[in-house]
Specification:
Blueprint: E1 7-8, E2 15-16, E3 23-25, H1 30-38, H2 42-50, H3 65-83, H4 90-98, H5 108-114, H6 120-128, E4 139-142, H7 148-155, E5 162-166, H8 169-179, E6 184-188, E7 203-207, H9 216-225, E8 232-238, H10 253-258, E9 265-269, H11 270-278, E10 299-304, E11 327-329, E12 333-338, E13 341-346, H12 351-356, E14 367-371, H13 372-379, H14 387-392, E15 396-398, H15 415-438
Parallel strand pairs: 1-6, 4-5, 4-7, 5-6, 7-8
Antiparallel strand pairs: 2-3, 8-10, 9-10, 11-15, 12-13, 13-14
Helix pairs in contact: 2-3, 3-15, 4-5, 6-11
Amino acid sequence: MLDGIPVVRRGRVDVQEHATGRTEVDGPTAGDLVALLRAGRGVDALVAMLAFPPRLPGRLTRRGPVAALALAARRAEVRAMLDEVDALTAQDWMELAYLRSSERIDDEMFGYFFVRYGQPRYLASISLLRALPDTDAPVLDLACGFGHTMYHLGARARPVRTVGVDRNFFQLWVGRRYIAPGQTFVCADRVDALPFADDAFAASTCTDAFHYFDDQQGAMDELRRVARADTVLIDRVGNRAMEPRDAAGERDAAGYVALLRGAPWRLTSEDEVVRDYLDGHGPRLAERRHPAGLRRSKWLALFSSTDRSLFTDHGPFDAPPHAAGALGINPAYAVRRDGDDVVLAFSFPSTWYAFENAAMLGYTSPGERLDAEEFEDLVAGRAGGSVAELVERFVLLGLPPRYARRPGSAPHASVLRGLAAGVRSSVAATRAGARRRRW
């Protein structure tokens, strides 16, 4: 157990690329973590898991004395960040990992994860979650990442307890600290051997990850085993019949259905669910469709349960699901001052993000002009007369309270400023230790 997160792994607890499993950062071994914890060095264990090598300028390599010094400075920086952990946000830690770390880490992942609330795939996910059974039992979220959907489930009018499982400790730690702090996170890397009892959950979910799994049959069997009535929601899986391929493990619609071993099922597509969402109602799951009818849909969703009462068409929303929780300004907006006004301008964080999320242009406001008082009210969470309209235009979204810095504020640090802060912190700690030894 490391800072409230069970680590159920063997060998090295590396940071792995979310799609391919490629090691991006070499982590400590499970034995090293246990030894540190037994020695009462929990902070050292945590730093070892959160301190990624920084991105070095020029031709400096990842090895040698310069790289070693840079990593030591980064570890000191992370230790200093932990000292002010309650004053930081998920954004600060995501920037550290994806924008200020080794070139082995894809910086595209910053936009992919941080500007997630409001994406078409997120709207589809939170709409499909309406299909889950209404019970007090928890829901499993496999490959949960930072816990975006876990936050939504906990923020709904009827909150749902969740347990999120992922192999990347860093994402789980940020999720537990800043995104879904009331939920449970587990670090484990065996999707075909989940560490839970039979029927432990009301349902199992897996969003935007299942088609990356090597053992998809084993994963599906496990997701069904741990869920009552074998209730499973697999959301946003790539259809291999449509280009571009997102993963080598993509299947066509019939291929995903075959994994259910004859259990009852419903299929739909992300495009259809999002269209229904924007029309103000949930997914249509009453009728079973032939898989061939979805051959031209790139992103699929599969819902299965032996409880056939769950197969229904979901009606109008009582309130926009994307407004569940504390309202905040959509991170997709750049903020600038223009005289006495504040201008919000929608922008994609990258070209690839724009390609994957072009549909956002059809429902997200291109920009807003607010007077300073209205802007301050929105930042402070004070409701105003325009709130409903801003929610409708996806300017305001339900966000974890500690998800993002104040809109328009500067980053916590750059690579060089961060390393300099790490050096200062290390020197200060060394001097303090020397003073204690003298006394």
